[in-house]
């Protein structure tokens, strides 16, 4: 999916919502455990319910790998279901890969050739040769970790060099020499508030994937105030706040309602551009 196509979907739906499919079999409604594939059954119901209100889905690989072969099969079925039934939705595999060049090349082949997702989260710590293999695929995106929403982000990401440049700023600046606005996004946590201004100072046109709205306490209004640009430039992710909003048989209906509420907020923010 190209940047132009992604922006078109955002404009048509008046939404920049990404639904995180962090599917934990221990948290899904108990009646689904009678299904042959409970994880996929849950995902399918969530997707069908929320698709009108979002432009993207982000399955987190840890939640599938935790269940071995069956979990990976559920991930594959989820991606296939999305591609066959909702081909205009942007699929992000949240796998946070990144290793020496040869290994990264195999990770890239796995996600961009075998699974054929649109984007993959990548860790930048090992530098350019660990990231470049992911950037060699036309129409595919790297979503690079820059400034995350967890409390441990302060351990490294906000440390400064002798010139006062923070590590996350160095990541933003350096990585834009590897990719561009058409194949490189950055993860910036919703809880980082006004630091979105620092991000936009260095990466004014890049798309940002923003986790942390909802259950983690991030404010959509604040994210938009400091991060929204004229063609949006944001994908805001919500996982637990949508998919686990109900533990009953009405879980999909409630998820749809939560997604719709966020979409309506996003529509109001987009109207301010």
Write the layout of secondary structure elements.
Elements: H1 3-13, E1 17-21, H2 38-50, E2 56-59, H3 62-65, H4 68-85, E3 90-97, H5 101-114, E4 119-122, H6 128-131, E5 141-147, H7 153-156, H8 167-175, E6 184-188, H9 195-202, E7 208-210, H10 220-227, E8 234-238, H11 240-243, H12 251-270
Parallel strand pairs: 1-2, 1-8, 2-3, 3-4, 4-5, 5-6, 6-7, 7-8
Which features characterize this protein?
single chain; 273 residues; alpha/beta; 8-stranded parallel beta barrel; 43% helix
Q: How confident overall, as mean pLDDT?
A: 95
**Strand-and-helix sequence, N→C?**
HEHEHHEHEHEHHEHEHEHH
Strand element count: 8
Overall outline: globular
- Distance linking N and C termini: 24 Å
- Briefly note the structural class of the backbone: alpha/beta
- Rg over alpha carbons: 18 Å
- Helix percentage range: 40-55%
Assembly category: single chain
Spatial strand arrangement across the major sheet: 1-2-3-4-5-6-7-8
Main beta sheet, described? 8 strands, parallel, barrel
| Residue windows where pLDDT falls under 50 for at least 5 positions | none
Strand content: 15-25%
Number of helices: 12
